[in-house]
Amino acid sequence: xxxxxxxLGPETAANRFKPAGSSQxxxxxxxLNRRSGTSEDSRDESQRSSDERRQDxxxxxxxxxxxxxxxxxxxxxxxxxxxKGQGRRYPDRWxxxxxxxxxxxGTRFVAFKCPLKEDFFAHDTHxxxxxxxxxxxxxxxxxxxxxxxxxxxxxxDRYYNKDVWYDYDVEYRKLFCPGHEVNGRxxxxxxxxxxxxxxxxxxxxxxxxxxxxxTHGINRTGYLICRYLIDRQDWxxxxxxxxxxxxxGHTIEREKYKDTLREAxxxxxxxxxxxxxxDAKTDEPSTSPPSETEVPPPPHFDEPDDASEAAxxxxxxxxxxxx
Length: 323
Prior knowledge:
Layout: H1 10-15, H2 50-67, E1 72-73, E2 79-80, E3 109-111, H3 133-142, E4 147-152, H4 163-167, E5 171-174, H5 186-202, E6 209-213, H6 219-233, H7 237-248, H8 255-283
Parallel strand pairs: 3-6, 4-5, 4-6
Antiparallel strand pairs: 1-2
Helix pairs in contact: 5-6, 6-7, 6-8
């Protein structure tokens, strides 16, 4: 930690993508090709390691700071300028949280806080605080994993340019999700569940991850991931909460969200019990005498409908004998 900000080095951040005990290796053919196409030797953002990006970021910020007036070089190799190169203000408390959680064991989910556009970061920003889409994808690649879907739950579109996800061939879905009220928005839950269902149906033959983020990647993110596990994958609510918090590295802060998750499990279990009871009654053999409507009707003899079976017509009978 530095000045109260969580510091997460590239090796640590990359490992957080890996589930516990994972030893999966990345194939040699794996490449994060941009939508416009890149060659094997290309050195664009999609092919650079997170180490290279972080070092380049430090160098660029250092040079920019040297050109500003009144700058001072710090002993740790980073540069803090005065007056110029100030970035936009971070979202509230954004810097207090780890950027990325671990891949949730038994699922494809990985939670992270919102990556930001580069202009949010001043030239004196410490490299460990820098977290944009390129850095995130680099961490995933370093962990030999790949994002296939990102669901953005922030209630704004000002934090980054969503087209960058498409450059990395990552599907992007947006849900404008206001803070503090997602536990009362079943419409948002159904949309989120639908996004995940669609992605999993189309990606049965791979192991691409589903990234989910709100501003901090904790409360709204945790609620909706846990709801999916409860609603679609039959998880126990407390188990879903525990696994999410362990993998994210932070606890869900809103107790009302946890209470609603437990209620969602109870509602699911009640519906299942009622269905089982109804099915059991339907399958029980009947012991009561048949009702009047169940008594078979008396036999009915249809009139012959074939001309050959009909009685001879009167005109075809032989004339009576004459004496």
